[in-house]
Specification:
Helix content: 40-55%
Radius of gyration: 29 Å
Number of helices: 28
Strand content: 5-15%
Bound molecules: nicotinamide-adenine-dinucleotide
Largest sheet: 8 strands, mixed
Oligomer: single chain
Number of strands: 23
Structural class: alpha/beta
Length: 801
């Protein structure tokens, strides 16, 4: 099978997963028909319809922009099975019951198009058994496709073939899942619970068992097993509450039923306290009480011994906190193991048991160790998987300690470590050539599928080959301009900032100017792309606040003028400049992006002009640019009755900046007017550099010229300011905003409306830039703004004053 074209997807089951998978598919512009059982009352597709309507109430939001829900159609199995013929891909996500799934597959079989693909989202049932319910001819077109909850945000999708699945179809589906759906795909075997849940749930079981052995409360365990262990913030027991304790118990029961000869089988049972909670209906977040509960202001936690809720105050001991801060993994593990502190011994024990379990089952569960590490990172939000953690801590030393604990009878199981673990010369499972496969005894390189060539910087596990560095063209303290990898070819230069969170300081401004000159003379395009998770958190508030405190307002004015010039340098470059956004693109970072020739943004990007949060307004050309865009849109929407009122285009921009709104996705940013129609949104952030380089190259090929200098444009002037001010006064007098919010809002109104000139006056770009810069510097003279800046610098949070 060659390329897979997915025009429409049928999703069967409008429950938690089905509805959210549908939402994510429309996020990536794939229309969906969402099926469920026919409703007993009301419209026949009522169940699916209610699920679609309910998407806007879920948090975090499954939909990337309002309005996308209308691309999901509601359907039911009674009337609409014929519509399966419209679907190139059908994903089944009905309740986890084999008999129900088999019934449904038998029912849909006759309606499937012969060239469609069918996939089940089961969490752990046998894929081969489910597939056998399909007509013979369709069985080669069936596999498992296991999304994680919530599917928009969790990276992992496990792809599980049956022995009959067509290999080329699986490649095509993987390509679609990676590029279009934006997921991290791990191929799994058809074993109970596949990879991530098999190991992830075992890790929870080992945590419960060892918490009991060491007498630690759930609150203490969560403080130990979340971010301190570089795992998800919800740690162990809050994760269980979120998943649902009934679901947890169900998964544990499935392990007990399907893995009878697992050496750890005796632990595959829900502890009494868990059964007790389920019996009294405390199922976790969905019933507002579980292991934790919050009846009032205080968080309570279940006390295992009494079965009562008590105040949740337990936390990591100072000694253990200190150990967990040791940077060398080998020293950290040695200290945990040597300590008498029960918390330290617990932390060693849960990792020992997990490593032990992972090693014993590697041959049967996963193709190689890299797949296990990536599955746990992407499916459970850990920053490192078990094998890479073990390897970083010193492979053989950890193996000796595991063996000692097995011999002493303190490990959870006495199953011997497989021989490959301690074979001479082994220093781990990940090497530059690839990762160890216990099944074949060989090292497996990364997937050769062409889709992965689009990832210049793939997510690497520790111990793998290093990321490419490219060749430096120029660097200073603030930036590095580089080239020389496959994505850049010889013609595109990449500009990456080197400051913390890529904030913009004087060295970055200086570096951009030099980089632009070099890009113009030696390259055909420049891409601004960052190696970290975020594009830029904006201007360097630290140096601004130092200048304010020293009273150097002329220096600040000069610095902001420099900022504005830099925005224009990006816009007016003689080669295309593409801003490649992911993570956060805020404040000054957003202003640079607004001035780039094109934006290429990953869907999950937070974009916003958030300066009002620190008592300022956009000063790097952001206000000018918004006013210019508003004027352009107003002029373009002239109706028969005359020009549209410019104010209608200013007001939404004013509101979003005044509220320091951050677009929650690139599509959301489009609706806020921060992305233009020609800007590109992609789904997989690892493909960002590849696409951005190609966009720059495409623009260069099309004979790039920077935009002609903007002509003078119309502003709202004094009338606009007065209208916005009236609004601000109402909010202030109603107690909804502070007096300082009013001051900042008024400055913003002036900057967006072009100052107190008559409505409709034509102003030029320089006028607008000077105005926003003057207003910006004036706000810095206000002590309340300085207080906001200092508070944000100290706490990372906004101050409401
Ligand atoms: P859910 O209970 O929220 O939804 C199940 C859906 O199945 C409902 O819409 C229901 O109307 C429908 N249904 C029930 N009985 C049916 C029948 N006999 N025939 C047809 N449809 C029927 O379940 P969910 O959490 O969305 O799980 C769906 C699938 O996804 C399961 O296989 C589950 O294991 C898997 N899964 C769940 C999660 C998770 O975290 N919830 C994560 C990954 C995979």
């Amino acid at each position: 099978m060659g390329k897979l074209i997915v025009r429409k997807v049928g999703v069967l089951g409008a429950g938690v997963m089905g509805a959210q998978i549908a939402a994510h598919l429309v996020n990536v512009r794939v229309p969906v028909i969402l099926f469920d059982l026919p409703a007993r009352e009301g419209p026949p597709s009522g169940i699916a319809r209610r699920a679609i309507d309910g998407l806007s109430r879920l948090s975090p939001p499954p939909l990337a922009a309002p309005g996308l829900a209308s691309y999901i159609e509601a359907a039911n199995y009674e009337e609409d099975l014929g519509r399966l013929a419209e679907c190139d891909l059908v994903i089944e996500a009905i309740a986890e019951r084999m008999d129900w799934k088999l019934d449904l597959y038998r029912r849909i079989g006759p309606h499937l198009r012969a060239d469609s693909i069918i996939a089940s989202n089961t969490s752990g049932l046998s894929i081969a058994t489910i597939g056998d319910a399909l007509p013979e001819a369709m069985r080669s077109r069936f596999c498992g496709v296991h999304f994680f909850n919530p599917p928009r945000y969790m990276t992992l999708v496990e792809l599980i073939p049956t022995p009959r699945t067509d290999a080329s179809l699986l490649d095509a589906l993987e390509t679609f899942l990676v590029t279009t759906v934006g997921k991290g795909v791990v191929r799994a075997r058809d074993t109970p619970n596949f990879i991530a849940n098999r190991y992830g749930i075992f890790s929870m079981i080992a945590t419960m068992e060892n918490a009991e052995r060491f007498g630690l409360g759930f609150d203490v365990v969560d403080d130990l097993t979340g971010t301190r262990l570089a795992r998800a913030k919800s740690a162990t027991f809050r994760t269980a509450d979120v998943v649902g304790l009934d679901t947890m118990a169900h998964v544990i029961r499935t392990m007990a039923e399907t893995l009878p000869s697992d050496p750890w089988h005796r632990y595959f049972r829900s502890p009494d306290w868990l059964q007790g909670l389920i019996e009294r209906g405390a199922l976790g977040q969905k019933t507002r009480a579980g292991i934790f509960s919050k009846p009032g202001k205080e968080i309570l936690v279940l006390d295992r011994a009494s079965g009562q809720y008590v105040a949740s105050t337990g936390a990591a001991s100072d000694a253990v906190k200190a150990i967990l801060k040791i940077s060398s993994a080998a020293d950290r593990f040695a200290a945990l193991r040597a300590s008498d502190d029960p918390q330290a011994r617990f932390l060693w024990a849960i990792q020992r048991d997990l490593f032990h379990y992972c090693a014993v089952h590697l041959a049967s569960v996963a193709d190689n160790a890299r797949d296990v590490d990536l599955a746990l990172r992407w499916g459970f939000g850990w920053s490192a998987g078990p094998f890479e953690t073990w390897q970083a801590a010193g492979w053989q030393q950890i193996a000796r300690w595991i063996n000692e604990d097995i011999a002493a009878g303190v490990a959870m199981s006495d199953a011997p470590l497989p021989a490959w673990v301690t074979e001479p010369g082994r220093t781990g499972v990940h090497t530059e050539a690839g990762s160890f496969s216990a099944l074949t005894g060989s090292v497996v390189a990364r997937s050769p599928l062409p889709v992965y060539r689009r990832q210049a910087f793939p997510p690497l596990v520790s111990g793998e080959q290093a990321a490419p560095r490219g060749e430096t063209v120029f660097e200073n303290a603030g930036v590095r301009l580089w080239t020389g990898i496959e994505a850049t070819g010889g013609d595109i230069a990449v500009l990456s900032f080197r400051t913390k969170m890529n904030i913009v300081d004087a060295t970055v401004l200086e570096g951009i100017a030099q980089a632009r000159a070099l890009a113009e003379s030696d390259f055909r395009g420049m891409v601004i792309w960052q190696t970290g998770d975020h594009f830029s958190l904006g201007a360097d508030l630290g140096s601004i606040s130092a200048l304010v405190e020293a009273g150097k307002f002329d220096d600040i004015d000069a610095m902001i003028a420099r900022f504005q010039q830099t925005s224009l340098l990006l816009r007016d470059a003689q080669v295309p400049v593409v801003a490649a956004l992911r993570g956060m693109a805020l404040g000054g970072g957003c202003e640079f992006a607004l001035h780039a020739s094109r934006i290429v943004a990953a869907l999950e990007t937070g974009i916003g002009l958030v300066e009002t949060g620190v008592g300022l307004i956009p000063g790097g050309g952001g206000c000018k640019e918004l006013a210019l865009r508003a004027a352009g849109e107003a002029a373009a929407t002239r109706s028969a009755s005359g020009a549209a009122w410019l104010f209608d285009f200013i007001r939404p921009r004013f509101e979003s900046v005044a509220l320091a709104t951050t677009a929650k996705s690139a599509e959301d940013a489009r609706s806020l007017g921060l992305l233009r129609a020609a800007d590109v949104v992609i789904t997989n952030p690892h493909e960002l550099l590849h696409v951005a380089c190609n966009v720059a190259r495409g623009l260069a090929d099309s004979g790039w010229r920077p935009p002609l200098p903007p002509q003078p444009f119309a502003v709202m002037g004094a009338n606009g300011i007065a209208t916005l001010q009236a609004h601000l006064v109402n909010l202030r007098d109603g107690g909804l905003i502070s007096a300082h919010d009013h001051t900042v809002g008024l400055a913003l109104a002036q900057a967006l409306c072009g100052g107190p000139v008559p409505e409709g006056s034509l102003v030029d770009e320089r006028w607008m830039l000077d105005l926003e810069r003057r207003l910006f510097v004036d706000l810095l003279r206000n002590p309340l703004t300085l207080a906001r800046i200092k508070h944000t610098l100290a706490t990372g949070k906004p101050l409401r004053n």
